[in-house]
Each structure stands twice: as C-alpha cells, then as structure tokens.
Amino acid sequence: MTFEPNVLAFCCNWCGYVAADQAGAAKLEYPSGVKILRLMCTGMMDPYYVLRAFERGFDGVLVVGCHVGSCHYKSGNLQAKAELDRVSRVVQALGLDGRLMMTAASAAEGNVFAAAANEFTERVRKLGPSPLRGA
Ligand code: FES
Predict the structure, then answer these.
(1) Is the shortest distance between the CB of 18 and ligand 1 below 6 Å?
(2) Is the pTM of this model over 0.85?
(3) Distance from the CA of 46 to the center of ligand 1, in angstroms?
(4) Which of 63, 74, 88, 135 is deepest in the core (most CB within 10 A)?
(5) pLDDT (tens digit, 9 = 90+) per residue, 30-89?
C-alpha cells in the first residue's frame, strides 16, 4: 500500500487561499491529503501552529502566502519567513527535517499552488510517515 502523506497547508486569505481555489476551479490536480487552513495573512503564523500540526499527526506543513512585496499587510509574509526559519531548528531537532516549507503564490497562480502542493507532497512521501505519527 502506498503511503499518502497528510499535509497541512496554511494559506493566506488574499493569495494562497485564492490560488488554491483557482487550482480547484481550473481542475488542476493536487493530492487529496493536502488540507487547507486559511489565515488572514501568513504573518499570523505562530511556531506553535507548526509544532501542533506535527503533534496532531500531519506528515508535512506547507505555508503559502503572497509574493514578497505583495502582502496585504505589508510585511506579514516576511515575518512568517522569519518565524518559520526559527521554528525550523526545532523541527530539525525533532527529526522532521524537510517536512516544513514556505512558498508564495499570487491569487492568479492556481498552477503555482498545485505545483507546490504536488512537489511538497512528493518530497514528504519520499521521507515516509512522520516519526511523530501516533506518538
Ligand atoms: Fe498574503 Fe500577508 S496577506 S502573506
């Protein structure tokens, strides 16, 4: 039986979420294991959210925000990047290296969202189930 990763995708309301919606409307395929959680801005990302997602058994965490310079709250995406850089050290220490990724997609880039969801899921599939699954 093939391992199907569960990925939690935090998407900002103005770009990432709309891109995911665009991907669906355009019938672009991405794995059903990608679950979307909408935030107003990726700047709301708290390291706790990432750790909680892993604790809850997700195999990967994807964050999709606006492109640099396009955040609707000016610099939320840059703040998110800084937060994720910080939490990535903890993620590595927990043996979850490679299971956290941030990317950008504009509201018109459903194809970018679908590609990121596919590529990230494939990367996580190669890593196998999270060691925290069922812990
Ligand atoms: Fe999209 Fe801030 S509103 S990252």
Answers:
(1) no
(2) yes
(3) 14
(4) 63
(5) 999 999 999 999 999 999 999 999 999 999 999 999 999 999 999 999 999 999 999 999
Domain ranges of the chain: 7-127
Count of residues making up the chain? 135
Distance 61 CA to ligand 1 centre (A): 17
43 lines ligand 1 (CB under 6 A): yes
Residue 40: strand, helix, or coil? coil
For residue 78, CA distances in Å to 7, 28, 95, 115 come to 22, 28, 25, 22
Q: How far is the CA of 114 from the centre of ligand 1 (A)?
A: 18
pLDDT digits (tens, 9 = 90+) for 18-37: 999 999 999 999 999 999 99
Q: Are 97 and 91 in contact (CB under 8 A)?
A: yes
